Automatic annotation (TrEMBL):
Pfam families documented for this protein: GerE
SMART domains linked to this entry: HTH_LUXR (SM00421)
Keywords: DNA-binding
Protein's recorded name: DNA-binding response regulator
Alphabetical list of PANTHER family matching this protein: DNA-BINDING TRANSCRIPTIONAL ACTIVATOR DEVR_DOSR
One Gene Ontology term from the biological process aspect of the record: regulation of DNA-templated transcription
UniProt KW DNA-binding keyword: yes
Highest taxon above the source species: Bacteria
Gene3D superfamilies: Winged helix-like DNA-binding domain superfamily/Winged helix DNA-binding domain
Organism per entry: Pseudomonas abyssi
Molecular function in Gene Ontology: DNA binding
Length: 88
């Protein structure tokens, strides 16, 4: 399932300080995608992905992908009910 098709798992809460693109990157991180794979999926450079990841970590006060995954699940950015194991 491509990232765009997981919109039902995105939180539209205005309380989250993330841009739509940052939410896409966070969603991909939470799905276990590497920065290289995220860059390929979103048609951006790996350096751009690195920048998004750093900014997401800063905004959310997290330090690693495990914390990012937990945040994404807790805030409805990644809905495990809609996740297909083939996506991992």
């Amino acid at each position: 399932m491509p990232l765009d098709n997981l919109a039902s798992g995105l939180s539209h809460s205005s309380q989250l300080p993330l841009t739509p693109r940052e939410r896409q990157v966070l969603q991909a991180l939470a799905m276990g995608k590497s920065n290289k794979m995220i860059a390929h999926i979103l048609s951006i450079s790996m350096y751009t992905v690195d920048g998004y990841v750093k900014e997401i970590y800063r905004k959310l006060g997290i330090r690693n992908r495990t914390m990012a995954t937990l945040f994404a699940v807790q805030h409805g950015i990644l809905n495990l009910n809609h996740l297909d194991m083939a996506d991992l």
